[in-house]
Amino acid sequence: MDLTLVVLLFASLSAATAALGVGPFALNRRVPLTQIGLANGVAAGMMLGAAYGLLLASFARGLTAVAAGALLGILFVAWTHAASGTDELDLNRLEGGSDAYGYQVLLVNSLHSGSEGVAIGVAMAVSQPFGIFMALAIAVHNVPEATVLCAILTARGVRPASAAGLAVAANVSQILLAVVTYAIVRAAPGVLPWALGFAIGGLVQLVMSELLPESYRQTGHRSIALVTIVAMGIVVLLRGVVP
Amino acid sequence: MNPVLVVFLYGLITALATGLGALPFVFLRNVSPRAVASANAIAGGLMLGASFGIVAEGTGYGAWQTLVGGLAGVVFILLTQRWVGDEDVPLVAAPAANARRMTLIVIVMTVHSFAEGVAVGVSFGGGATLALAITIAIAVHNVPEGLAISAVLRPRGSTVLACVAWSIFSSLPQPLMAVPAFLFVDAFQKALPYGLGFAAGAMVFMVLEELLPEAYDRASRSRVAILVSITLVAMVLFQQTL
Predict the structure, then answer these.
(1) Strands in chain B per DSSP E
(2) pLDDT tens digit string along B44-84?
(3) CA B227 remoteness from chain centre
């Protein structure tokens, strides 16, 4: 199979798994705020594990370019938050908020999945097994992340089926950026350390600015720390198994 | 010179280098809540970055052993927190909470130096010509660790001298552990992945449970996130250049 098609296939799979996040709401369950925090903790830990894998892959590839790329990735995510006015938005509200709140959260999720797409694309360019590992890690990560999104959307009156569809739609930019990143790095291999750095910086910045801050307040320091470190440990360990 | 003495002296040099990390705080007098939060974020990023490097090294010796060590490190922090007093009591006096966090960071960083000391001793076994290169690498690598400790101690009222002293103290296990590790390389090499995992688990858990939540409480999350992200990546890449 053409390698670009492999990227397309796995990035699409990763985006599609977001639909699974609607599970509890399809069964008409309410998810309390404390469990929303735990879902974010799992997503955060897996993303830190993914960043660790990318960092290992970046060693011996021109550290200056990796560092510069990482700075760009960090600033890009920070800038998208600031420019869209979502940098201080509480991302886990189930009640209240303005009419625009649901759209703002959807926007944040769509921007967020762009950096994930870069991570999948660049990992595929490093090696196919590593790329598939990264796509699967992001796919699993997308489930708790989509649960948080679906909790917010269903609390605002969106039907579960529509919430599942919107969760997948918010991840479409992931497919696009995975394929584009892969194509660019294949055409110009010199870009690889930059793209690796960009993905590393972007993922860490997403964890630190979106996934962790509110979860600590909602669920408690110790629970979040435990869930995050366990999720991270599992991804780090699995990374050791992948060739 | 006696090779054991050389290992000890080189280990001592690396410990003293940790004290250099306190020096930026000669100029830092502002201890507003936001400055404390920034210092927490910087310390957190440096410790996360250091842990990434340690895990990468540990899994090179054995992935499962590193994982077991990591779990033990998390349990160790939970027990230490119980021992220094649980913070989840509301309305706890600020000085008590500060003293608790200061004690924890010194304990965590000191414990992590044990594993580093073993790593130094084991790598010294690789040949005398490598010794100086390794010493310089570890010494430079220790400077940001002193910075991490001082970033927690200094905004909570420690003098610069105390920051230097505690930074060096936290690295004293390096010369102490390097010598036996050098003498009994084979035995210590088997224990190394457990020790490295332990150090990483303890550091990451301390960052996630203590440093980050406090930083988010006192400064905007974008500010905290940028500081953590930049220092994390910088620490990992910096240690790779050594």
Answers:
(1) none
(2) 898 898 889 888 888 888 888 999 999 998 998 888 777 76
(3) 18
Among B55, B74, B221, whose Cβ lies nearest the Cβ of A209?
B221
Residue A116: closest CA among A88, A87, A136: A136
pLDDT, tens digit, for every residue of A51-68?
Answer: 999 999 998 888 999 999
Among B133, B114, B109, B106, smallest CA distance to B179 is for: B114
Neighbouring C-beta atoms of residue A241, cutoff 10 Å: 8
Contacts of A205 in chain B (CB under 8 A): 225-226, 229
Specify whether the CB–CB gap between A22 and A123 falls below 8 A.
Answer: no
Q: Which residues contact B62 (CB under 8 A, 6 or more apart)?
A: B193
Angle between helices B63-84 and B94-124 (to 10 degrees): 150
Tell which residue, B234, B226, B168, has the closest CA to residue B37: B226
Q: How far is CA B131 from the centre of its chain?
A: 22
ipTM of the complex: 0.91
For residue A92, give the 3-state DSSP assignment.
Answer: coil
User: A160 with A21: CB under 8 angstroms?
Assistant: no
Report the chain A residue with the minimal C-alpha distance to residue B52. Answer: A52
Residues in chain B: 242
The total of other beta-carbon atoms located within 10 Å of residue B220's CB is: 15
End-to-end CA gap in chain B: 26
Collapsing DSSP states into helix, strand and coil, what is residue A201? helix
By residue count, chain A amounts to 243
CB contact under 8 A, A74 and B67: no
